[in-house]
Amino acid sequence: MSQSQRDYYEILEVERTAETEVIKRSFRKLALKYHPDHNPDNPEAAAKFKEAAEAYEVLQDPEKRQRYDRYGHAGVQGNGQGFHSNADIFSHFSDIFGDLFGFSGMGGAGARNRPRAGADLRYNLEISFMQAAKGDEVKIKIPRQVVCDECGGSGAASGSSPITCPDCGGSGQIRHSQGFFQLQTPCPRCKGAGRIIKNPCPKCRGNGIVEQVRELAVNIPAGVDTGNRLRLRGEGEDGSNGGPAGDLFVVLHVRPDKTFERQGQDLILRREINFVQAALGGKIELPTLNDPVQFDVPRGTQGGQIFHIKGEGLNYPGQSRKGDLLVEITVTIPTSLSAEQEKLLREFARLEENKPLSKAKKAFKKVGSSIGL
What is the pLDDT of residues 178-219, one digit of tens each? Predict the structure, then answer.
C-alpha cells in the first residue's frame, strides 16, 4: 500500500470512534509538528503535513467520514479529496492555522483572490404529520447574502474603483519573523483585502454583498421523519471571486399525530374493543393514511395483542415499498352492569365451570345482545 493510501485514523493517531473535536486537536498537533516553516529542508515533513491535511479533510466531514468508514479510500475518491500545494491546504483550513499561528494562511493575493464557494445555510422547517406521510410542496423564505448588483461585488461606488493598499502592496499580508517561523498576518490597514475602498457603494456600504430574501419551493418526499435533511444545491450564499454558491440544508421537524404513533416507517394504532368482541370476534373499522379499512378481529383476541396490516404504513423515501400498520388491541371491561347482564354473566361463569363449552358460548352471545353489541 502506498503512503497516500495509509489509514486516515492511523495518520491522525486517533481511534475510529474518536469525536470530531479529538480529530481536530490531533490534526492541530501534527500540523504544528510538520509545518513547512518549521521544517524548511525536510521533504518528509512536508509530505506528512500534506498527508495529515488530507486525512483531516475527510474525517472532519461527517458525510465523507461515513463513506470512508464504509468503503475505505474508494468511498472518498473523486470528491474533492487531496491538495495540490501547501498554500491550498492553508487556504482550506485557514481557521485551524489562524488558531495555531495567529494568521489567516499563506499564498498572498493569489490565495485571497481564488474563487471561493459561498457559505451553506440551514433552515429548520416544521411540517405536519400528514405532510411528512404523503409528501408536499412547501414555500419558504430565506434571507441570504448575495453579491451587490449595484457595484458587482467590488464594494466601490459607481465610477470609482478600489485602490491597492499602500502598506501591504496589495498582498493583504504583512510578513513577520518569529524564530524559525516566517509568518504572514493580515494587513491591519486593509484587513487582508489587499485594497482600500475610498468611495464605498451606497447600497452595500463597501461590503460588496447585500441581504436578499428569496422564496423557494421545497419538495418534501413522502415518508420523511424528524431530523431528515433536504439539500437544495446552489441556494446558499453567493460565492466570492466567481466561486459557486453554497447549498441550503432544510432540516425537517415533524409534528406528532393524534391518531398514529410512528415507529420508523411503521404506524402504531391503538384500538379498544369490548370483552364480547374479544371473545367472539367481529369487524371493526380502522383509519389509515388513505381510506378506512375493515378489520376482522379474531375470536379469542387478548388485550395487548398486536396485528400487522401490511403496506398501510409510511413510504420509504425514494422507494416504492411501505411500512405496516400495527394495531394494538385493548380490551375494555364494563364498570357497571344491569341486573340482567349480571345474571347472564353468572350463568356464563357457571356453564364455563361445568362445560360443555358450546352452551357457554351461547350464553355469552346473550350477554353481548343484552349489552347492545
Answer: 555 567 778 888 888 788 888 999 999 888 888 889 899 999
Assess whether 133 and 64 both reside in one domain: no
Name the amino acid, one letter, at 360. Answer: A
Q: Report residue 164 as a C-alpha cell.
A: 491597492
Distance, CA of 35 to CA of 24 (rounded, Å): 16
Domain boundary pick from 225, 255, 285: 255
Same domain (yes/no): 241, 120: yes
243 inside domain: yes
Q: Which three cell numbers stand for residue 28?
A: 492541530
Among residues 148, 140, 149, the alpha carbon closest in space to that of 121 is found at: 140
Q: All 3 cell numbers of residue 150?
A: 449595484
Please give the model's pTM, rounded to 2 decimal places: 0.56
- Both 119 and 102 in one domain: the answer is no
Based on C-alpha coordinates, what's the Rg of the chain?
34
Q: Is residue 270 part of a domain?
A: yes
Residue 293 sits in a domain whose CATH number is: 2.60.260.20
Distance CA 297, CA 285 (A): 10
Q: In angstroms, rounded to a whole number, what is the distance separating the alpha carbons of residues 112 and 102?
A: 17
List C-alpha distances in Å: 38 to 46, 51, 301: 10, 16, 77
Q: Is residue 185 part of a domain?
A: no
Nearest to 110 by CA among 241, 237, 246: 241
SS3 assignment, position 292:
coil
Q: Quote the Cα angle for 224-19-253, to 5°.
A: 20
pLDDT value, residue 139: 96
* Domain identity same for 99 and 122: no
